[in-house]
# Entry
Amino acid sequence: MNKDFNYSNLKLGIIGGGQLGKIMSQKAKKMGFHVTVLDPTFNCPAAQVSDKHIIGGFYDKDKLEQLVQETHVTTFELEHVDTSILKELYDHGHKIYPSPYVMELIQNKYEQKKLLDEKGIPVPKYKNVNSKEDLKAFGFPVIQKAKMGGYDGQGVQMLKSESDINIAIKAESFIEELVDINKELAVIVARSIEGEIRCYPVVEMLFDERVNICDSVMAPARISKDIEEKSIEICIKSIEALDGVGIFGVELFLTKSGELLVNEIAPRPHNSGHYTVESCATSQFEQIIRAVTNLPLGSTKLISPSVMVNLLGEEGYEGEPFIEGIHDALEIPELSFHFYGKSFTKPFRKMGHITVLDDDIDVALEKAMKAKDILKIKGSKKYE
# Structure
């Protein structure tokens, strides 16, 4: 797409129809674009706000080809997708961003880490696992990660001692040293087709330790100027190393000794960037549309400090979702409520999020924690 392209006719394809695809589609529709989503679930969140829904799986080559052929540009809201047909289409000139080659690399967490390491980007110490002996290479405790398919805490196992080897992940995997973490940070990085880069503020992620899912995000992170600048420099180098186009969520560990290490990269809008919808001049969801359609990247200016909290399905409930406490929560000043429209809840499933703004980040956190205590996503079936 060049500057003379008629953007009023632009057709955007999104692989994936979850909450990320939903908000991407809403931003694309705001810009007047036609949106087609590919997802196997009828009436998935993104389908509710898009022009067309191709019902198909992410490894269905025919449906993936249909999506690409019917749109001007294709992008992703998830990384677990068949890249073989997409590489063929990309090599024949179809516009798919990030490129299927970048997606394929990122799908394999070991290969992703290896590339970053080779490019001089700091990462935790790691080792490929070919045998039980390899699991002992760094001593214990140690973190084992599946190379493929892991997300939201899935595919990650802590081995506390040698006796834990019998519960080790059986799939292809690698191990990482257990990092002495002070804070978990993240930066959303946008990179255009022409190589223009914009970084969002460094944020601090807090995790629900029961299931290792990001629970809340503080923007900006409570870190020194020096750590902030180093984080952004490392994240820019990481996306340039990938030659990525689109939006990338770069997760970092800040160690207790003050070292910064890249944990992993998501090649799509990221949970740590939800706050940008209310808190930044351009949201991550609009930014990816700009990046992949060859439009200038928008300002990433932080308009207000904020805290984002994920609304997870309550333990002990499943079935049709029921929102408890919405009236009381919406009385909290500068709170925005997002519900994704998923038809089924289960424990710890991401069902929505809230973002709370305040000039004082600590007050924003206080208000967000109050809302988190009030808002509960329960289901039609209760079990013990």
Summary: The first strand starts at residue 11 and ends at 15. The mean pLDDT is 95.
